[in-house]
Every structure is written in structure tokens, then in C-alpha cells.
Specification:
Blueprint lengths: L18 E6 L4 E5 L3 E5 L2 E5 L4 E4 L7 H5 L6 E7 L3 E6 L4 E5 L8 E5 L2 E4 L1
Antiparallel strand pairs: 1-2, 2-3, 3-9, 4-5, 4-8, 6-7, 7-8, 9-10
Length: 119
């Protein structure tokens, strides 16, 4: 079952979570945080630092270094943007923006303990 994420969705549980693991697959990237929080992405996302932006789409292999640089960082800000996009701002100013583009399939899932958002 696929859902859209409304801009007033409460994702505050992502705040102050530390990114403790990144699992990189050919068609999926999983971000695991402390406190039983994870985000699995099967669609597009961007990582932005102060000087660069990296884009990942399924099958891309060009963002591994930028993903590793997020490890140990804490989420300082969470925003739900139009069109079910989610923005996480990490300590040090790096940003992760999940941007679903393929609306025929699941784009990402956010899991918090027993709650699961499937977009």
C-alpha cells in the first residue's frame, strides 16, 4: 500500500537521532539511526554539503563517500516538503533530501519502532 506524506506529518521523532549505520545496495540505501529509527530509500535522494551536492538514484554508485561522511552526525532539523519530499539537516550542516519521483512503486519507508511510513 502506497501513501503520500502530508506536509503536516509529524516526523519529529527523527530529530536528535544519530546516524549509526548506512547500508548501500544496488537499488536501496538504508539509513539506520539510534532509537529504532530507519529510512530505506529505493528512489532518488540528494546529499548536500557546504560545497557539493551528490545525487543517488537506484543503481548509482557515486555517493558512497558522501554517505559515509554522514555517519555519527545528529539530525538537527526535519522538514516535510511538498510532493512527499523529506529534508534532514545534520550536525555540521549536511543535508539529505529524499525526493520520490516514481509514484508507481515505493520510494522510501521511514520506520520508528512499530510505526512505518511507506511512500
Amino acid at each position: 500500500m502506497l501513501y503520500s506524506l502530508s506536509e503536516d506529518a509529524d516526523l519529529s521523532f527523527l530529530g536528535e537521532r544519530e546516524l549509526i549505520q548506512v547500508a548501500i545496495g544496488l537499488y536501496q540505501v538504508i539509513f539506520r539511526f539510534d532509537q529504532e529509527v530507519s529510512i530505506s530509500v529505493e528512489d532518488r535522494f540528494e546529499i548536500t554539503s557546504k560545497s557539493e551536492t551528490w545525487t543517488w538514484t537506484p543503481g548509482a554508485k557515486n555517493v558512497a563517500e558522501s554517505l559515509v561522511s554522514l555517519l555519527g552526525r545528529v539530525v538537527e532539523k526535519v522538514r516535510v516538503l511538498p510532493r512527499s519530499r523529506v529534508e534532514l539537516v545534520f550536525s555540521g550542516g549536511m543535508q539529505l533530501v529524499i525526493t520520490p519521483e516514481n509514484h508507481d512503486y515505493e520510494s522510501y519507508q521511514i520506520t520508528h519502532a512499530k510505526d512505518v511510513f511507506v511512500i
